[in-house]
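User: Quick sanity check before I run a bigger batch. Here is a single chain. Can you write out its predicted 3D structure?
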Amino acid sequence: MGAFLVLAVNYGARYCFGVFLKPMAEDYGWSRSVISLGASLNMLVYSLGAVVMGRLVDRTAPRWIITTGALIAALSFVLTAFVKTPLAFYLVYGLMCGTGTAGMGVVVANSSVGKWFVRKRGTALGITTMGIGFGTIVLTPAAGYIVEHLGWRVGFLFLGTVVFIVGVTLSQILLGKKSPEDHGLAPDGETTSTPPLSCDAPAVDERPSFSAVLKDSRFRVLAMGFGAGVMVMMSVFIHQVAFAVDRGIDRVAAASSLGATAMSGLAGQFFFGWLSDRLRDPKYAASLGMGIMALGMVFLIRAEDVLDLYLYALVFGFGYGSLAPMMPILLADRFGRQVMGTVYGYVTLFIGGGGAVGPILAGIFYDRLGSYDIVWLGDAAVLLAAGILLLNLRRTEEGPRGERRSAAPGP
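Assistant: Done. Predicted structure follows.
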């Protein structure tokens, strides 16, 4: 529950940024690419921070990691309400917010939860990552209403307050243990001291180096596949509301489409986690999710009114729901649960790079072409390629001396 709610406030606050894009551009006279660069920097710093957070969460309980992240993120949202120049915006929202939200992100939350489960890992992570959708459903319409009636600055103050209260409180009360072994338990709530199905998982003091992981083709496939998916996701989330308003759709209704995406994502997050526990290889669930996202982009290209926009949101959102649970599920399946924080941090560095590229590229294409059509078409193609790539993800990898390495048995 603690991880669920921390993800809710973190990603709900970050993913509603699209609500602020057009009013900030109108208020300051900045182009959309200038403002999108702030979101891209936020994602890039977030991914760099995730490497550090991943190694920390394999060593210590998430309590103080999340508390520190919540304090920094809350302050950054408050300060963003008072920025006057693009440079100040980049420093506060890009650097500070990216750093803080990394401490509250999926690397910390999902790695912590993933260490508690083996047989039911997919379902557990699916439920945990539903917090992302829940937070977006709640915070995006709320932010849209506040921006519409009180202004975008009050909207940022509201987000800062929510992140501070929820992030700090929950991390201190509910997230004080690193693993089930700290409670004298084994994964899946077993009372035996022998962890089921995970006897070959690497020990914590055997955390792989970055160079060793980078040589592993499984890591490269995961990084490229999910990096492409997050690149599309971020380009859509940052520009979706502005696109809808450009099409003559009311701003609050347009902002609510993000909430509809997240609501459908809730179902997707649970479904793909549940499905991965029932497939011979969870990679098939991940590939299916990419395909459904691509179909959603086709609907967005054709969207002309509110009904079209919500149809896109429901389809794309359901597929997007696969991203958050499938990444840690596949990492634990291929590399073992005890080091998933470290490897998760490494892969997030590349995924974040894709996420950072998405918003700024979409902004540049819009500024030059005056339309998002080519952006959405390119996004659909990228998602199809990512889905095909993930189908080639192997379970074993050749070691540096020619030996075969295999991950801990999956669910």
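The chain has one domain: 2-178+209-399.

User: Great, the batch can go ahead then.
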